[in-house]
Amino acid sequence: MKIDLHVHSNNSDGTMSVSELIDEAKKNGIDTFALTDHDTIQGIEEYQKLDSDYPMIFGIELSTYHKEKPVHILGYFKNPLPEMEELQKFLIKMKEKREERVKKIIKSLKEYFNIEVDYDEIKKNSHGVIARPHIARVISEKYGYEFQEVFDRFLNNDSPAYVEIERLSTEDGINLLKRNHAVTVLAHPFYLTDEMVKDIISYGIDGIEVYYLEQNINKYHKIAKKHHLIETGGSDYHGTLFDSKMGVPEVKESAYLELIQEIEKLK
User: Fold this and answer.
1) How far is CA 46 from the centre of its chain?
2) What is the pLDDT of residue 240?
3) Do 136 and 151 touch, CB atoms closer than 8 A?
4) CA 133 to CA 18: how far, in whole Å?
5) Which residues pair with 33 in a beta bridge?
6) What is the dihedral of CA 53, 54, 55, 56, to 10 degrees?
7) Distance CA 97, CA 54 (A)
């Protein structure tokens, strides 16, 4: 069985629709994937309207902050979606704040780099949550820069045009997802210090991404075993945005079955 538990659509910062992702998954022989868009569940609603028989897993990747560092928490839900009014209200507010942030970044790009981009053009190319990749695409097309070059020169965290986004604390984010019937998993832990990973485990997270291309799989497998955490993983696929392939790295079927078992326990 081929599984990918970390995939993004164009409802956040991916380049493919949910329908296109399903086609891509079938082309790559992937039996199931989890849609884990950043701070939105619009893609899940899109999937439900497709009336597809492809067995997609419902998820989200929630933006949080711990010790002044971004931490992404994956949440996995039951199908059909449970009642989660609190989370949906939070995501609506977050979307509004992201739109305000984009307008501030546009202003700063003009001020510091004399780069002019149109908000409506950026919004037109997004299908849900607006993020820096949407700005980068418009700059790339208008000025001829490579996509990554835009980030490196103008949109990185140390750029004068960078605008911080308001985020939940990691502990509050985990608790928000748990209150709204999600299995919680720490995404790509290799970006964090070992001390931060320990902190996040102490907040009661359910699992940790073990199978992720750039990290030491054995290291995080040992951490998962030591702390009795479920193991997940995936490609963090964003379509044509980054150099990645759906279904890589390979996630063990036993890890997938353990996640499904935990999802089934949700109330």
Assistant:
1) 17
2) 83
3) yes
4) 18
5) 4
6) -120
7) 33
- Below-50 pLDDT ranges, the chain: none
* Cβ-count burial 62-99 (b if 16+ within 10 Å, e if not): bbbbbeeeebbbbbbbbeebeebeebeebbeebeeebe
Is the CB of residue 82 less than 8 Å from the CB of residue 177? no
CA dist., res. 7 & res. 238, Å (int): 7
- Residue-level pLDDT at 215: 96
Secondary structure of the chain in HEC code, one letter for each residue: CCEEEEECCCCCCCCCCHHHHHHHHHHCCCCEEEECCECCCHHHHHHHHHCCCCCCEEEEEEEEEECCEEEEEEEEECCCCCCCHHHHHHHHHHHHHHHHHHHHHHHHHHHHHCCCCCHHHHHHCCCCCCCHHHHHHHHHHHHCCCHHHHHHHHHCCCCCCCCCCCCEEHHHHHHHHHHCCCEEEECCHHHCCHHHHHHHHHCCCCEEEEECCCCCHHHHHHHHHHCCCEEEECCCECCCCCCCCCCCCCCCHHHHHHHHHHHHHCC
**Which residue matches tokens 């045009």?**
161
| β-pairing verdict for 32-35 and 168-169 | unpaired
- pLDDT one-digit tens code per residue, 68-94: 899 999 999 999 999 999 999 999 999
Cβ proximity of 235 and 33 under 8 Å? no
pLDDT digit string, tens, across residues 196-243: 999 999 999 999 999 999 899 999 999 999 999 999 999 999 998 777
